[in-house]
UniProtKB/TrEMBL annotation:
Modified residues (4-aspartylphosphate): D389
The keyword Kinase is annotated on this UniProt entry: yes
Name this polypeptide is given: histidine kinase
Enzyme class label: transferase
Catalytic activity: ATP + protein L-histidine = ADP + protein N-phospho-L-histidine
Keywords attached to this entry: ATP-binding, Chromophore, Flavoprotein, FMN, Kinase, Nucleotide-binding, Phosphoprotein, Photoreceptor protein, Receptor, Repeat, Sensory transduction, Transferase, Virulence
SUPFAM superfamilies: ATPase domain of HSP90 chaperone/DNA topoisomerase II/histidine kinase, CheY-like, PYP-like sensor domain (PAS domain)
Domain named Response regulatory: residues: 340-450
The keyword Ion transport is annotated on this UniProt entry: no
InterPro entries for this protein: CheY-like_superfamily (IPR011006), HATPase_C_sf (IPR036890), PAC (IPR001610), PAS (IPR000014), PAS-assoc_C (IPR000700), PAS-like_dom_sf (IPR035965), PAS_fold_3 (IPR013655), Sig_transdc_His_kinase_HWE (IPR011102)
Superkingdom of source: Bacteria
GO molecular function, one term: kinase activity
Lineage: Bacteria, Pseudomonadati, Pseudomonadota, Alphaproteobacteria, Rhodobacterales
Amino acid sequence: MNTSFPNHRASHLDLIAATSDIGLWELDVRTGVAERNLRHDQIFGYVGALDRWSDEIFLSHVVARDRERVGGLLRAAVAAGEPWAFETEILSAQGDRRWISAKGQPRFDGSGKITHLIGHVLDITASKRREERLKLLSGELNHRVLNTISVIRAMVRISAHNAGNIEDFTVDLDARLDALARSSRMLTRNPDKDTFLREIVETEVAMFGSGTTRIGVTGPTDISLEPRSAEAMTLVLHELLTNAAKHGALSNDDGRIDIAITRNPDNSLSLNWEESGGPEVGTPGPAGFGGALIANALNGVGDLQRDYRREGLRVKISLPYQRPVHVLPRPSDNISDAPRLLLVEDEVVIGMDLSLTLEEAGFSVDGPHADVAAAMRALNVMPDIALLDVQLGKETSAPVAERLRALGVPFVVLSGRASDDPLPPGFEGAAVMQKPHRDCALLALLQQCLDAAAEDRRGSGT
């Protein structure tokens, strides 16, 4: 078998062909014999050179979805006597998938008849994978940016809703945005690694200046949290410390806070918060934004219990390694004929803002539910309509969408994905609202879906 090029090639070209990473080939169209350098066959997964090579062998390596396209390009190039170029995915001799870039052109005799095809092939697998990773990272970055904008927007709206004056609003909002920024810095510093619980605690404690001498932190330093749990814990601890500084143990000169982190025998994690020496604790009033955030931030990733003891607030936070099925108490329906809406949203602040907006618009809101298991449990009571966030931590709400479709319940998808980024399987044909959204547009879309569902029921006689 001959894998060297004809003798009329200059010697320096033979040297380049032997040492480069380019697969070179020349096909005699009359005999069907293809001359190649060794690198050509190696690109297709062969350790040594094959005895023969042909366009049939080449096309057998092209993945099925591209075979007709690539074969057509080659036939058209030969028929028209024109150069060609393409990229395609191939299946190598070892069975792994790779990407190649191929270019070729015909050679003619004195009468203008094609005698040879010559060309080269490059292995572009690494660059294709980098390209795919860049696309994935760009999509994820876009999703995070849009989601963060929605979180900030929700913080502004809810903080304003509960603020007594503009000064309090400014101070509280600024502090909450700082907490969100600290969480983001910890998560992006090591994007592929979890964040340590103790690091979160100590970072938040350090923000309270001289008061930190009256805050004790004990427990292991090697307990890590996934990103969503880390963000929720940052926000909860910020609100607990803020409340302690305003009304609790850090509001006088004698109080203190003890924070104990524990790894339990069942591999769950606990954080026990205990205030002492501060003003006497009274009966808690209606929860403002901070209180609601503390109560709901860990929905779907853990559990939080508060004990308003006279001698000081005690809080117990449990964070299992596996997310529990956690169903929020259902709100009472003040209006019996209010449309029941299932809300699935894992960002606690966005969920709180949506609940407030939807309830003010006349919906009876069930949720927000932060994971698929909780949402599926909630479907034991049939909703009239649902509003679904797509990405719920490491899972999507696609199973909920499929179940709603099977039940004949209309739903709207609220997504932080770019408009040209397709939704995952399971959301085909869904009504979509992009984050950050406008309330009037969201409410109009929900009403449109309710009206369409009602019309369908009338048409089917149900």
